[in-house]
Amino acid sequence: MSNIISISTIGQDSHRFGEPCGDTVIRLGGVDIPFDKPIEANSDGDVVYHAITNAISGFTGVNILGGEADKLCLEKGIKDSRVFLEKALEYLTEGKVVHCSLTIECLRPKLMPHIPKMKEAIADVLKIPSTSVGITATTGEGLTEFGRGQGIQVFCILTFTKEI
Question: DSSP strand E in 24-91: where?
Fold first, then answer.
């Protein structure tokens, strides 16, 4: 007889913005968002997907960012953070993601109009319903560099089920 348990892990990532460069886009949660500053990163800088990837690494014990992602990005030129997230999911053999909760801290861009598309994109890659993805956005009352507009920080809590 087997039992199913729930386990939650946390992931975090942050990136600075580069200098303003006019009309451009940044990618967050797999969605391209118009913005006037690029994200400084080797990859596409999708801090949402990076935080989710780190939360998966917390469950599997296999660090993707800084290891396999660097090989994909720097050696093979793969910049799409979804590829890194999918790589992390390959190691998820003993559990299943059932819920994803994200908190995004930044002054801008304003994220509210983009949250529904982000939820759909995240749900698609995690193979869960979009109703199982929660996203909140905050400026943190301007208490950090992120809330003052210098970059973006994301915290992710993933809940998994695992058969024991």
Answer: 24-28, 31-35
